[in-house]
Amino acid sequence: MTETFLAPDRPFRTKAELAAEHIKQMIMSGKTPPGTKIITRVVAEAVGVSDTPVREAIKQLVSEEWLVERPHIGAVVAEFTVANVRELYSIRAALTALALDLHAAPLSGQRLAAVDEVLAASERAIEGGDVAAFARLNRRYHSLLCDTEESRIVHRMLQGLWAKTETAQRGFRLVPWRLPFSHAEHLAIRDALVAGDIARASELQRAHEMAAMAALIQAMDANRRRQE
Q1: Which of 47, 68, 150, 159 is most buried as measured by Cβ atoms within 10 A of its Cβ?
Q2: Cα dihedral sign for 127, 143, 187, 115?
Q3: Please, what is the Cα angle at 32 between 71 and 28, to 5 degrees?
Q4: What is the pLDDT of residue 11?
């Protein structure tokens, strides 16, 4: 099977999409925690658009469960619960493993080179204690493995899930100690794919997502106990 390396898409974005992206970044940065009201005019001024596309963006983000509508208040940042984590990571585990199964070919060529470049940068991020950089590289790593001709639909579904599990300073921001363990798991998945052992790679990928889920839930429970 001939492998095609797919360059990241850079589609045109509407004003509403730009506003939605800005709100997502507000949430993912941790500057806008759960329960915070999204003020249309503030977003509009930050993005440089009118109120109308911002309202469209808010409606979209409510449907995607980034935001929730509160009576007499408006749209606020949604809470991120243990139940959310368990559901999202379970779906991620199934879809990322499925993507590997659908493209049942050894990792090689340009894609392998790109994966190795990400892994090298990830190691540097760990050495420097750069959690934000590792988080970006982590998403790039999984995107490289899952974005193939055979798994384009799966990859689009995963993009939304990855974004959701980055909200409210979750993911590696909450469990920075997991960086070296995650990196070791990435290396093991990479090696299985290079060897053409797709079943093993798929198994390792599922275990990787479940380990991330367990760590995140443990951290969330610890935070909750400290606040009680």
Answers
A1: 47
A2: negative
A3: 120
A4: 59
What are the φ/ψ torsions at residue 29 (nearest 5 degrees)? -75, -15
- 210: burial class by Cβ within 10 Å (0-12, 13-18, 19+)? middle
Provide the residue type at 99 as one letter: A
The pTM for the full model equals: 0.74
How much helix, strand and coil, in percent to the nearest 5, is found in the chain?
Answer: 70, 5, 25
Tokens of 43: 């977003």
Asked if pLDDT for residue 28 goes beyond 80, the answer is no
Report the C-alpha gap between 73 and 58 in whole angstroms.
Answer: 14
152-171 pLDDT, tens digit per residue, is: 999 999 988 887 766 544 56
| 8-12: long-range contacts, CB 8 A cutoff, minimum separation 24 | 8/143
Residue 9 has a CB neighbour count (10 Å cut-off) of 6
Q: How far is Cα 68 from Cα 74, in angstroms, rounded to an integer?
A: 8
Average pLDDT along the chain: 89
- CA dist., res. 92 & res. 208, Å (int): 10
Give 28 or 52, the one with higher predicted confidence.
52
- Coil, strand or helix at 10: coil
The residues pairing with 179 across neighbouring beta strands, listed in sequence order, are: none
Q: Which amino acid is at 93?
A: A
**pLDDT tens for residues 203-227?**
999 999 999 999 999 988 887 787 6
